[in-house]
Design a protein that fits this description.
10 helices; 3-stranded antiparallel sheet; 24% strand; alpha/beta; Rossmann fold; binds S-adenosylmethionine; 7-stranded mixed sheet; 38% helix
Length: 255
């Protein structure tokens, strides 16, 4: 898998991703002695917060750049390079945690099946990801501007509805304990370049096949299209909508 993640840019300008998810760790409620997997751990900041609560935690990510940065940030913690669609662990986990990673993987079923297989009986799966409608205005502008310029719209994101994700969890033997979707618009860090930097960090796939010389103009057109909706009080906002889930592996047999 090509590594598209710039871990330095992530830590430097996009720390809101993990800073906004601190209360997700309260939902996970890790306790001393538990063994927990942080799926799509990125640069390891939430992995470290879980470890600080006394759990033994393993961070897994498919990006070599993210794993290298995580190891540098937290040398005492365990990080492994791996794909969430092909989990292989000898020892089962009490819980699997994931923040802002699962919407990068359209193949949700193998991921959830792998999580189920990696958990102890009654193990929990606590996650946050983009919900259906997440960054809808940004995706619409990317699609419209790229197509107007004669390029294919390459949308890499998977933003399921609560109903869709609940069904996938149940098929894989989970019982959904709590599930919520909510709007959480994010103020982007740099006032003028905020949207441009967000696109650079998270929307690279959309620009595959776009000649480098045309990119600045296309980004400027995307900014013009989004300015009326996402530029407020002198800053850019991203129209985030999240899905949060606490699920438990059922002790009942799968029908
Ligand atoms: C926005 S980052 C979130 C990182 C971290 N969870 C946080 O909250 O800061 C998304 C992460 O998902 C990882 N990812 C994407 N696809 C993956 C896959 N198939 N398997 C494992 N990790 C994946 C990326 O490499 C990236 O580090």
């Amino acid at each position: 898998m090509a590594d598209r993640w710039d871990s330095a840019l992530y830590d430097d300008r996009h720390s809101f991703v993990w800073k906004k998810a601190g209360d997700l760790i309260d939902l996970l409620d890790p306790v001393t002695g538990e063994r927990i997997l942080d799926l799509g751990c990125g640069t390891g900041h939430l992995t470290a917060q879980i470890a600080a609560r006394g759990a033994t935690v393993v961070g897994l990510d498919a990006s070599a750049s993210m794993i290298a940065q995580a190891r540098q940030n937290y040398p005492k913690l365990a990080f492994v390079l791996g794909d969430a669609r092909a989990l292989r662990f000898d020892e089962p986990f009490d819980a699997v945690f994931s923040n802002a990673a699962l919407h990068w993987i359209p193949q949700a079923n193998p991921v959830i099946a792998g999580v189920a297989a990696a958990l102890k009986p009654s193990g929990r799966f606590v996650l946050e990801m983009g919900a259906k409608g997440n960054i809808a205005q940004i995706a619409e502008a990317l699609t419209a501007v790229l197509e107007e310029a004669g390029h294919a719209a390459r949308n890499p994101w998977y933003f399921p509805s609560a109903g869709e994700y609940a069904s996938l969890l149940e098929v894989n033997g989970f019982e959904v304990r709590t599930m919520e979707t909510f709007e959480r618009w994010n103020k982007l860090e740099h006032p003028e370049r905020g949207l441009r930097e967000w696109l650079e960090m998270f929307a690279g796939v959309w620009f595959d096949g776009v000649p480098t010389g045309s990119r600045t103009e296309i980004v400027a057109r995307i900014e013009s299209r989004l300015r009326p909706a996402l530029w407020r009080d002198g800053v850019w906002w991203a129209d985030y909508k999240r899905l949060r889930v606490v699920a438990r592996l059922g002790v009942f047999p799968i029908e």
